[in-house]
């Protein structure tokens, strides 16, 4: 634990950095031959489930400054998501939900902030699942 000030540096659209770090770590292990996408699985609870879900999807996000989802093979063969935050955009757009307003400090308000809207729409596992071609296998989600 590095404290509240460290945590706050990576809130709102800075969450993309943690997502990218997570995907780079998985890719590093796969490229070094320690594992492959066929035998890699991820586990995440709550917001961490969003990172696992994104790693399992077949698109990756460039950066927030140019939010383009590029096709790629899934990094994971399976994803276990506990109480997953798999549709953050829809959740954060609905302020009648009990936690939405309290989560604005963490994720931003997508109705008022364009960067928050871009980040949430591009990082959402629900919005990133594409129709899998025969060459791309859909990962197992639990």
Write the layout of secondary structure elements.
Blueprint lengths: L3 H6 L5 H17 L9 E5 L1 H10 L2 E3 L7 E3 L6 E5 L5 H6 L10 H4 L6 H10 L1 H4 L11 E2 L1
Parallel strand pairs: 1-4, 4-5
Antiparallel strand pairs: 2-3
How would you describe this structure to a colleague?
Strand 2 and strand 3 (69-71) form a beta hairpin. Helix 2 (15-31) packs across helix 3. The protein has helices at residues 4-9, 15-31, 47-56, 88-93, 104-107, 114-123, 125-128, and strands at residues 41-45, 59-61, 69-71, 78-82, 140-141. The protein is built from seven helices and five strands, in the order H-H-E-H-E-E-E-H-H-H-H-E. The strands form two sheets. It has a three-stranded parallel β-sheet, covered by helices on one side. A two-stranded antiparallel ribbon has the order 2-3. With 142 residues, the protein is of the alpha/beta class. It is globular, with a radius of gyration of 15 Å.
